[in-house]
Structures
1.
Amino acid sequence: MSRALRALLAACLLPLVPACAPGSPDPLVVLGPWTGAEGEAFEAALTRLDDGTGRTYTYEGTRSLRETLVSQLEADTPPDVAILNSIGELTEYARRGRLRPLAAETATRAYRPWAPTLLVDGRLRSFWVPLKVDLKSLVWSREGASGEDPSWCVGLASQATSGWPGTDWVEDILLHQAGPTLYSEWATSRLGWRDPAVRRAWTTWARLLREGPGAPVERSLTTSYEGVSGPGGPRGLLDSPGFDCTHEHQSAFIRYLYAGEDVRVEPSARYLDGRAEYRGAFEVSGDMAAVFSDDPAAQELVERLSGPVGRQRWRAEADPAVRPLFPTTTGLPPTEPVSPVEREIDALLTSRARTLCFDASDVMPPELRDAFHRAVLAFFRDSSEAHLTSLLEQLDTVRVEVDKVSGATRSFRPPEDICASPGG
């Protein structure tokens, strides 16, 4: 079934959708990572973006985003727009000629470090734009919990991408111990995994986790980052039975689990045995929109989604606990009062941080990123020096092999500068 036919059939299942009328243009298909309340809010914002343009939009939300997109590309039925969180994957699609360069107006919103430019056929081009972003270098705890002797909550299970909460730990530690320059070199494969600074980040993580009771190893390996589910859904690791923990290292998105509770958030730097000059550095992630279609309306949709109107409508549709954060607040009107947690995160993200660096594993090619995830899980079980040496050697082997297969040519260069000041 073609992409256009699939989208048209989906639209015709909805009552009174004008796209089903004879001669109407096909709905644009948007593939993205949001489901549940997040997906509903984004889909509602998409619907309100029509504004009489005559185009309608079909949103396909999935937790298996990479697998879904790969299968659609193999069937030559790509979405018009896809929203991905991996610069490594986006870079690969650009290298293979599957992405369309952004239109000029949208390219001005390709804020670094979420959207670095690529050298393609001798020209620096922008191929994706951040829609929603998150701050990662954060620690969550209960109000009143002492930060002097934390015991850490760790849940590493996440379906096909288990292990990423552990890679976030290693990345954040390396950023604060070695600084943005070395961090960037490592994330973009210009620095090997056996470098002493990289090894120290792994051993620091193991030492921090050994200092408190936390939870048994197998429980952490098999429990989701959302924690144990109760009658009302996920409870968060701070509330989950079997986790004797006081602090959690997790991205800003986790606030939906603790909305309205007596939970505080603070920068992670002071917990990571880092250097004082790097306390203003923060790791970030993002969900970026890229165009896979030659339909001009796909470019127009990304331009509207990334602009003030799209942002305002998305925020208006979203519940406070899943309200999106943006790379800059420029052009946004004041909103209704927000929680102290959201206010703190937004201030760090847009003004108080000195340097923002994109999530290192999401910069890496998918094969290397996946090997990193697996290595973290193996290290969590056995953090001995000998085992770590073996794991780092294996990761270096994968790094070299991936570089051979997808190495840069004279006409193409992947991004290298993945850190920037707030505001791009």
2.
Amino acid sequence: MLLFSILTGAVAPGISLLTYFYLKDRYDTEPIHMVLRVFLLGVVVVLPIMVIQRGLTLLWGDHPFLFAFVISAGVEELVKWFVLYHIIYNHTEFDEPYDGIVYAVAISLGFATLENVLYAVFQPASVGTLIFRALLPVSGHALFGVTMGYYLGKAKFAPKKSSGKYILLAAAIPVAEHGVYDWIMGSGTTYWVWFIVPLMIYLWVKGIRKMNRANARSPFALLVREEEIKL
């Protein structure tokens, strides 16, 4: 019974956040089965990511800066970006800018949810610890996903000459954001909270703005406005 409660507490933040971002799609919500498949892809990539990270740690050591920006943030975000680009980017269901956010958040939260479950099972996990992880690591992964999906959405519907730039930004900016997060959390300073709280506020504010912009650029938004005018 205790294990069930711990697992529920570990899974709930990811599912709740995924539901939140999914329901923010104003015009043409994605098929739930597609979103769940991408969420499960996030679960599946945990193992190869762990193997790559372990290998790089053995090769390069665990220097804080290198670990934060390359071994942790770099590997995790680039693997998620690679999967999204090759499996989702050209999919027919990716038909409006906000879809990039939905799918990027889904794969990010799939990864974060399994990571949270493994932490809860193999580390002493109190209610306070699970709340802490919901507010920081799990939310952080979701917000890095918002950034990635936003730029993939821009790339998908931008002129061909500028789409490459946005595809690169979809990888580079989440790596930078994630790296800063990991750098703060791994710094060892007793004042880490004074840095992580402003960072999370910034990510949430920026993320919500990007969500609004992506929704506003939906091709379905014009159709809705035209219908409203006719009525």
